[in-house]
Design brief:
The chain has ten helices and no strands. With 241 residues, it is mainly α.
C-alpha cells in the first residue's frame, strides 16, 4: 500500500480516539493556565528570565505531549490492532513512518498554538516585567517550543514502540522529567544540559549560560528522539506484532 493511504488510515485512528484529543486539549489548557499563574508578580529574582517565566507552563504541559505520543503507539498493541495494520501495510517501516507523521503534525500544530497562548498569558500576567522581550525572542520561543513538544511526543512514541507498552514508557519518562531532571539533574553538573528535556528547553529561555544554545539544544533533543525512534523501529522489525 502506498504511503499516503497508510497515513490517512493512521490519521483516522487518531481522530477516532477521544483520549488522544483530550491529551492535546490538556497540553494547551494546562500550559496556558500555569503560565498565567506563574506570571503573577512576586518576589523579584536577580536571575529573572522573562521568556522562560512566561513559558513556564510548558514544564507541566509537556507531560500531555509525551502521553499523546505514547498512547498513539500503545493503542496498536491492544486487541491485535497492530496485526490488522500490518496486514494492510506489510512494510513495517512505511507503517511506522505514517504513524509517526500522524503523531508529529498535530503535536507540532497544537504545540505552536499552546506556546503562543502560554506566552500571551504569561506576558499579560507579568505586565511591565516582560516589556524587555524582543519580537525575535518571542518568535524563537514560540517556534522552538512547538518543535520541542513535537520532539518529546516522538521520543515517547519511539520508547513505546521499543517497550511495546505505553504504561512502561510513561513510567520511565514522567518520573525522569519531574524528578530526575529537576532534582537529581541539578547535582549532575554540566551533564544535565545534555538531557533530552533540559537541552530542548534552552530555546524557551531569553538567555542561557552554558555549552548549548537554543537551536543546538533542540538538536540534542532531536538526536535523543532519533535514537529512540531507531530503537523502536528495530523492536518493531524483530518482534511479532
Amino acid at each position: 500500500m502506498p504511503f499516503i493511504p497508510v497515513l490517512q488510515a493512521e490519521w483516522l485512528k487518531i481522530r477516532t480516539l477521544r483520549s488522544l484529543y483530550s491529551t492535546l486539549f490538556a497540553l494547551c489548557a494546562v500550559s496556558t493556565v500555569f503560565s498565567a499563574l506563574a506570571g503573577i508578580p512576586g518576589t523579584p529574582d536577580p536571575e529573572f528570565d522573562p521568556l522562560s517565566h512566561a513559558l513556564s507552563g510548558l514544564l507541566l504541559g509537556q507531560i500531555a505531549a509525551i502521553a499523546f505520543g505514547a498512547m498513539a503507539v500503545a493503542a496498536e498493541y491492544q486487541e491485535g490492532a497492530l496485526r490488522i495494520a500490518l496486514a494492510a501495510a506489510p512494510r513495517r517501516s512505511r507503517w511506522l513512518a505514517a504513524k509517526l507523521t500522524a503523531i508529529a503534525l498535530p503535536t507540532l500544530l497544537v504545540g505552536l498554538l499552546t506556546t503562543a497562548a502560554s506566552l500571551a498569558a504569561g506576558r499579560s500576567a507579568m505586565g511591565d516585567a516582560a516589556a524587555g522581550l524582543t519580537a525575535g525572542e518571542q518568535v524563537r520561543g514560540v517556534a522552538g517550543g512547538g518543535v520541542y513538544l513535537m520532539l518529546m511526543a516522538l521520543f515517547a512514541a519511539g520508547l513505546t514502540a521499543l517497550l511495546h507498552s505505553g504504561t512502561a514508557a510513561l513510567g520511565i519518562l514522567v518520573p525522569f522529567i519531574l524528578i530526575v531532571s529537576f532534582v537529581i539533574g541539578d547535582a549532575a553538573g554540566g551533564a544535565v544540559e545534555f538531557m533530552p528535556d533540559r537541552a530542548g528547553r534552552i530555546v524557551l529561555h531569553e538567555t542561557w549560560d552554558g555549552t548549548l544554545g537554543p537551536w543546538t539544544g533542540l538538536a540534542v533533543t532531536a538526536v535523543w528522539t532519533v535514537v529512540a525512534l531507531a530503537a523502536g523501529a528495530w523492536s518493531l522489525r524483530r518482534r511479532d506484532a
